[in-house]
Write a sequence for this structure.
């Protein structure tokens, strides 16, 4: 048995001013055949990581293709997407014949001229391998589950958890189901329900924690192979953006349709109940400062300026408010400013300088913040962990402005692992208040430290107040913009 695997992935915020070029992939992940790390997967390469071990255990031949990933931002350039896509397709063609293909993709990738990159990639892969080859795909739940890609793949599995701490378990399931399909032990058939909505589903809180358990409770019995809640990625203006439920059964299409409909209707009934309050930043700060922090810092999340959603992470609104109020023992992390980081490295730990911080990318970045700073620490070529994965954050620098510590990075990234602090010799648990530029992924590492967590609205193209986005291409009606939006089975 011969199986080919590769990865091409990013999450595209079509409202972001930051272009995604080939350089964006080269500085995040560009691993050619055999170059993928052996110790840890990245966010979208778990199928390759798992298949390596399974191939050694089960005796099939694994042919590795290239793996590409870029931090979320604006659309990928046409030349970059086509270059990466065609490199993988050439590798696949050279590997033929194969019985299976395993692809790690994000699911919300948009390039100039391609609003469904995953669908385009699958169409070209299917044309090469033919109708009998089994194609399996692992996706982030913040994807656009288009009818095209569901029709072209044999099985698609999404991460269930948000933060995405289950990328490897889901890849294990994918590899297992693909192998069973190749061996003709199962015959996956898809059912897809469109919930007609956009929502935020952090699975560390109810009712979402229970819904994840409910998804899993159906799998492995009564012919149900897999259940995925597709959260959707609301920061993209593409036609099939939104929340959907994808069910695979072993040849039992009517049962799959019924289950997808049932779960989709349950999600619709939870409209307005799945997300924590999205407070104005000033209100979030008031509540955080009043919180009992004896057991750990209060945390304010800043989703709108979250690099993980395609924002710059260089907005200074929260920093400005903290300093203006004279808040003590607080930290903001990570604020993307390569120039400020370079200046701090030039001065070194213990140095002082007048620094212009942030506010550089676009009007959504707000104004830069000018202050006299003490450089607390600097570190070069750093990484942060995210579950079993690890990602680069570039050079780090921490400065102190009054009672506020600002952690800055040279490689744009959201707050994921505690290494943002520990690589600088700082202890995140020692602060009374942490303002983290992230929507939810910070919870995996920082949640256990927190006394309370607040979600705030600042400025940036990853706003959770979706009515601020100027959508022109998404299918309507769609809740919450359209109260009457209904759900329906579409496959």
């Amino acid at each position: 048995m011969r199986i080919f695997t590769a990865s091409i992935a990013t999450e595209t915020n079509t409202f972001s001013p930051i272009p995604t070029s080939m350089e964006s992939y080269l500085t995040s992940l560009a691993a050619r055949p055999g170059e993928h790390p052996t110790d840890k997967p990245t966010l979208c390469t778990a199928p390759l990581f798992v298949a390596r071990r399974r191939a050694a255990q089960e005796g099939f031949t694994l042919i590795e293709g290239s793996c590409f990933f870029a931090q979320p931002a604006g659309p990928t350039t046409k030349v970059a997407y086509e270059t990466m896509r065609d490199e993988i397709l050439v590798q696949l063609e050279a590997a033929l014949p194969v019985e299976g293909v395993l692809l790690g993709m994000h699911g919300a990738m948009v390039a100039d001229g391609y609003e469904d990159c995953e669908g385009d990639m699958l169409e070209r892969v299917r044309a090469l391998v033919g109708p009998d080859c089994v194609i399996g795909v692992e996706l982030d739940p913040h994807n656009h589950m288009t009818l095209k890609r569901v029709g072209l793949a044999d099985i698609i599995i999404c991460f269930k958890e948000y933060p995405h701490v289950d990328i490897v378990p889901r890849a294990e399931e994918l590899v297992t189901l693909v192998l069973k399909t190749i061996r003709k032990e199962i015959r996956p058939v898809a059912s897809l329900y469109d919930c007609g909505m956009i929502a935020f589903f952090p699975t560390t809180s109810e009712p979402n924690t229970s819904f994840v358990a409910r998804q899993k409770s159906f799998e492995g019995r009564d012919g149900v192979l897999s259940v995925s809640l597709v959260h959707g990625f609301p920061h993209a203006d593409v036609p099939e953006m939104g929340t959907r439920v994808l069910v695979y059964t072993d040849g039992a299409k009517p049962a799959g349709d019924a289950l997808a409909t049932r779960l989709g209707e349950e999600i619709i009934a939870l409209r307005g109940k799945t997300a924590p309050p999205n407070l104005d930043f000033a209100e979030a700060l008031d509540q955080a400062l009043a919180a009992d922090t004896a057991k750990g810092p209060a945390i304010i999340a800043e989703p709108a300026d979250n690099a993980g959603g395609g924002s710059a992470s260089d907005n200074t609104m929260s920093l400005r408010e903290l300093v203006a109020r004279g808040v003590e023992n607080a930290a903001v992390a990570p604020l993307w400013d390569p120039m400020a980081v370079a200046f701090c490295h030039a001065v070194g730990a213990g140095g002082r300088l007048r620094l212009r911080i942030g506010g550089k990318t676009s009007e959504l970045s707000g104004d830069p913040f000018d202050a006299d700073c003490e450089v607390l620490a600097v570190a070069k070529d750093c990484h942060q962990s995210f579950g079993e994965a690890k990602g680069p954050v570039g050079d780090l620098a921490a400065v102190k402005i009054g009672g506020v510590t600002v952690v800055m990075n040279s490689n744009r990234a959201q707050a994921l692992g505690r290494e943002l602090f520990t690589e600088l010799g700082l202890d995140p648990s020692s602060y009374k208040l942490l303002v983290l530029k992230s929507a939810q992924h910070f919870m995996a590492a920082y949640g256990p430290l927190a006394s309370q967590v607040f979600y705030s609205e600042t400025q940036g193209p990853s706003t959770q107040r979706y009515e601020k986005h100027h959508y022109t291409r998404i299918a309507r009606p769609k809740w919450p913009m359209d109260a009457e939006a209904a759900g329906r089975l579409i496959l």
Remarks:
- The chain has a mean pLDDT of 97.
- The chain has two domains: 2-269, 278-463.
- Residues 47 and 171 are 5 Å apart (CA to CA).
